[in-house]
Amino acid sequence: MINTTEQVCSFTFPMKGRNANLFFIFAFMDDLISLKTKMARYCAWRDRCTAEVEKKLYELEAAPEQIPQLIQWLEDEKYLDDARFAESYVRGKFSANQWGRIRIVAELRSRNIAENIIREALKSIQHRDYLATLQRLAKNKYQTVKSEDVQVKKQKTLAYLVSKGFENDLIWDVLKTIE
């Protein structure tokens, strides 16, 4: 028989035997419901990937045995979907940040997104839009480099576009057209 005393909201509840076990079960269930609510709000605010949700659950000090259960519940309730996250991420980083495919892929891999999901998400970038963005970025950077030497301007433009995650062969094709 368990003899224990639990402090809850400045009240002391003496518990014995089966009641003590029930209290801990209800506390566990209440914690699970609270975590479900918090995580549903967290995922509803914007698309999240599984890695972000796991990190957040650890920050909220969820029990390790609860984490797979919570993630499965979030997926079942459509709060969490890595494919939807990847598509949203690709669209956002390409349109808002003008990132290239290499950088987007690297970031998605760092979030443990599956390769097949990454490939599908990248299909949302239209090739003509990709090339237009690359040309616009190259032209703007080339014009803002404060050097008279054409080679220096091209090198700095190349470095900038590589840091944005564009492919070298596409960058060189664009740089050949800029003067």
Q: Record the strand order, biggest sheet.
A: 1-2
The biggest beta sheet is recorded as: 2 strands, antiparallel
Low-confidence stretches: 1-30
Please state the overall shape, judged from the principal axes of the Cα atoms: elongated
* Cα gyration radius (Å): 26 Å
The helix-strand sequence is EEHHHHHHHHH
**How many strand units?**
2
First CA to last CA: what distance?
86 Å
Quick take:
Helices cover 69% and strands 7% of the residues. It is mostly helical. The relative contact order is 0.08.
Describe the structure.
The chain is mainly alpha-helical and 179 residues long. The chain has 3 domains: 3-76, no CATH class; 82-122; 127-177. It is built from 9 helices and 2 strands, in the order E-E-H-H-H-H-H-H-H-H-H. It has a two-stranded antiparallel sheet. A hairpin with a 2-residue loop joins strand 1 (3-8) and strand 2. The protein is elongated.
